[in-house]
Specification:
Helices cover about 80% and strands about 0% of the residues. By secondary structure, the chain is mostly helical. The protein has two domains: about 1-180, Growth Hormone, Chain: A; about 195-410, Growth Hormone, Chain: A. The longest helix has about 35 residues, at about 345-375. It is globular, with a radius of gyration of 21 Å. It starts with a helix and ends with a helix.
């Protein structure tokens, strides 16, 4: 039962990644077909992001009421319906309309699944599951490319992915009885050795006593929550800014050939995916704290190599790949450590807020960098990323000190 449900969750994470790259991959053709400016992609992405933030913040209440299995199945079903709706749209306003259930479904399932895995499965699975998300996000551009090259049109790509999501919805509906039969994990290895791990019940008490639901403002007042939200915001802002602007920086500031820059920009994403697969083999032994520290340190080293003003581009290109590898364990480790840091009873509420912080960072940081770079120059790209790394490290370390101190006091 444990393994069967885990297999379903793995497939679900691949499926979660599939729609995320479709708009970007198809938009050069879509905007011409719909007769709208290329900049309208920003409107569409903002609608989706707003929906994900809203549903992430509401995920704790919804999941407590309907169960994680039901929320996951319904959310994937909403995403499937939205993708089919995209495939049937012949005007931009219709895409905007279908973007609403797309965003709402994506945010709810992301928060619900991440919390369930954090509570019920070891750290290695969190890393491998997020690697599966990257695998799905890497596959969908090929689906779009195939439908465009074969003359089927961009709408067929959305229909294909929508059908895949619909099949997954059916499988998830059948799996609903399994979700309540997998026992939560007990921290072991590095997690058990962490002083914070023993403080789980104490952390539970303040927010959990007297009611099952943890209101948003109550969750935000839990000591340390603002630290991890800021760290998560910084990481996701770093990742999304690098994904969007790295190739442009290499071409505009370092004089790298556009084809080479594009290839290494893709390697940054592949580095994240491959790094998560590799991180899964050591995550249980190393522990979430060291995975986060090591990840930020590796990203920092990559940024230094990216910024070194040498005649050769080898170090800059290697630095970008190294930064991708460093990014790999940070997101999964932050999510997986949430029940230990804040208590199992509070984890769904806090992970929902973390998802909202993640979407906020990934939505607003890239355009902010665009404004900053237009003002001072593209050379500021490594410095912008370095500031986000420092912010992420400072906030995560402040949380570590707080959780350790709280655990020692409770003994």
């Amino acid at each position: 039962m444990y393994s069967l449900l885990l297999a379903i969750i793995y497939v679900a994470f691949i499926s979660l990644g599939l729609p995320d790259s479709l708009v970007g991959a198809g938009w050069p053709v879509m905007h011409q077909s719909l007769g709208v400016p290329v900049a309208f992609a920003g409107i569409l992405s903002m609608i989706i992001a707003f929906g994900t933030i809203v549903s992430s913040l509401a995920s704790e209440r919804i999941t407590r009421r309907f169960s994680v299995g039901v929320v996951t199945a319904v959310s994937v079903g909403m995403t499937a319906a939205a993708l089919v709706g995209f495939s049937l749209s012949d005007s931009f306003w219709m895409l905007c309309l279908w973007a609403i259930p797309f965003g709402l479904g994506a945010g709810a399932v992301d928060a619900a699944l991440n919390n369930y895995v954090a509570l019920h499965y070891a750290a290695r699975h969190m890393n491998w599951l997020h690697a599966c998300w990257g695998l799905g996000a890497s596959i969908s551009p090929f689906i779009m490319g195939y439908t465009l090259s074969s003359g089927m049109g961009w709408s067929s790509a959305y229909l294909i992915v929508g059908i895949i999501q619909a099949v997954l919805t059916f499988a998830l509906l059948l799996s609903i009885p399994l979700w309540g039969k997998v026992n939560p994990i007990v921290p072991s290895g590095a997690a058990a050795a962490d002083p914070a791990a023993d403080g789980d019940q104490d952390v539970d008490e303040p927010a959990g006593r007297g009611a099952g639901h943890v209101p948003l403002m109550q969750a935000l007042r839990i000591p340390g929550v603002m630290f991890i939200l800021t760290a998560f915001f910084a990481y996701c802002a770093l990742e999304s800014t690098a994904i969007l602007w790295a190739s442009t920086y290499l071409v505009a500031d370092r004089g790298v050939a556009p084809a080479t820059a594009a290839a290494f920009g893709a390697l940054f994403l592949l580095g994240i995916t491959a790094g998560r697969f590799l991180a899964g083999f050591v995550a249980d032994r190393v522990g979430d704290r060291l995975m986060i520290r090591g990840g930020f340190a590796t990203v920092g080293l990559g940024i230094v190599l990216l910024a070194v003003p040498l005649p050769t581009d080898v170090l800059a290109l290697a630095g970008l790949v190294l930064a991708g590898l460093g990014c790999a364990p940070i997101y999964p480790a932050i999510i997986h450590s949430t029940p230990v840091n804040f208590g199992r009873r509070n984890s769904q509420a806090i992970i929902g807020i973390q998802m909202a912080a993640a979407y906020t960072g990934s939505t607003f940081a890239p355009p902010l960098f665009g404004v900053v770079s237009a003002w001072v120059g593209m050379w500021i790209f490594p410095l912008f990323l370095a500031v986000l790394v420092v912010l992420g490290v400072l906030m995560s370390e402040r949380l570590n000190r707080l959780v350790t101190r709280r655990a020692l006091v409770s003994r």
